[in-house]
Here is the input.
Amino acid sequence: MAAPKKGRNASAQSKPGRSLALILIAIAALTGGMFASGHTTPRLGIDLAGGTSITLRAVAEPGQESAINKTNMDTAVEIMERRVNGLGVSESEVQTQGDKNIIVNIPKGTNSKEARAQVGTTAKLYFRPVVATEVSGGGATPTPSPSASSSASGDSTDKATSSATPSGSTSPSASSTTQGRAVTDALKADPTPSTSAPSGSPSASSTPSGDSSTSKLEAQYAALDCSKKAARAKAGDGAKPTDPTVACGQNSQGQWQKYILGPAEVDGTDVKSAQATFQTTTGAGWTVNMKFTGEGSKKFAATTGKLAKNQSPQNQFAIVLDGEVVSDPFVQEALTGGSAEISGNFNQESAQSLANMLSYGALPLSFQEDSVTTVTAALGGEQLKAGLIAGAIGLALVVIYLLVYYRGLSLIAILSLLISAALTYTIMALLGPTIGFALNLPAVCGAIVAIGITADSFIVYFERVRDEIREGRSLRPAVERAWPRARRTILVSDFVSFLAAAVLFIVTVGKVQGFAFTLGLTTLLDVVVVFLFTKPLLTLMARSKFFSSGHSWSGLDPKRLGAQPPLRRNRRPARPAGPVDPKEA
Here is the structure.
């Protein structure tokens, strides 16, 4: 049985070049991918690249102060993280500060303006029937939308009456100057607006009840000037979903319109998912496709069925997001397919922004932006410089120690460190565009700590080889016999390090995760380098005369190591000639 085992060992020793070729091919492939992708340097976090820091303060609705609690704050943080990450932002940080504040850190290189809008927007979505609408301030000549599917039917006059009564009379309005966005049933899209005569007064759901509330609503509508930012911000303040209200929205011509809207028929919780898509077949451009829940589908079908019986503008419904009308499409027939498409005056950014907020849901609280601070990379750059100097000093000390103590073996260790550094750098550069990884100061610290972990693996293996030589074995058998014991020790040590990094990554947030991620990555690479580079390279070196002869500068000189005489098989001494002692027989 000894012969086959020896043959296997000999085969393993004779093909270390395969492992070396494999790891070199991997490095070449990663380097080629890095240059091909155009990302030749790792992405930097906010502490190294600079960025924007936003402080948001939670604001409770009147009488609902208890809504500001830990549960709702944690939910808000989770939703904000999903929104920012949905924009492709890397290394963003969203965390609570105190009882009412949330801090959002966004690295440089991202659309901070869009991110600011995303994190602070409550994203309360309602579908409300339109009672009346006109260009804010009046006097504007309505311009038909270029898309037939977003044009309102009915008469086209120069302006709407500024006091459109929310009753049965439906004076022509400037609703033909719409948002330029239409909602069509995803299964039955028909862009032709209905030209049939109205079947009667608007539905009860779109008619404010009570003379006093009607008069108050008319007064608000008459006084509302949506061209003013302050007026837009206060439009509809305090209105409940079940109440009629006024609102503002911008049409496709860039003009602000004001609306009287009925009670909400469908809300954002009835939307199951939303996705921005580019329509090439219909020529609609960027659209937002929505899918409703089972209950939402019923509500939407019932609402559109009622609106389809009315004339313009009361055959329209407004999609109201955080009090602002983002679309006011007309309805020709009940949309019963359970899905809908918002199309028209979208670009990629606006379509993805709306789909992002619809998909990730509404915040449980309203937030006010307290401060926005631009973070410079100067401080982080100084800290990085100090960290790199410390890392260079540590690396230099490791190299000096290896040269003094291991002499020729230090060449193998230094080459292994260089291979590990090349793998780490290329992988970090590629992880930026793929998973959004960004290098921050803690991550740099993790990479510096990894130098010690990698060097420790070399030392374990080298000492095992030396132990075998001390026992009297020659170098080539010593390299192979030492490997199983060293391998077990290296795997156990790296497993403990990786487990600690994984636990740290799971239980922490923010920048500490960067340290844990880098530590875990470099620990895995240590195993790869030791198995595919260090051990095969030492096997090849053991065949050279410099190492195999035990040169004094090889680090494997038997005399310096205090080696025992070569191991030999024990033999019984030859018996002298003569009679045999009966006791020995």
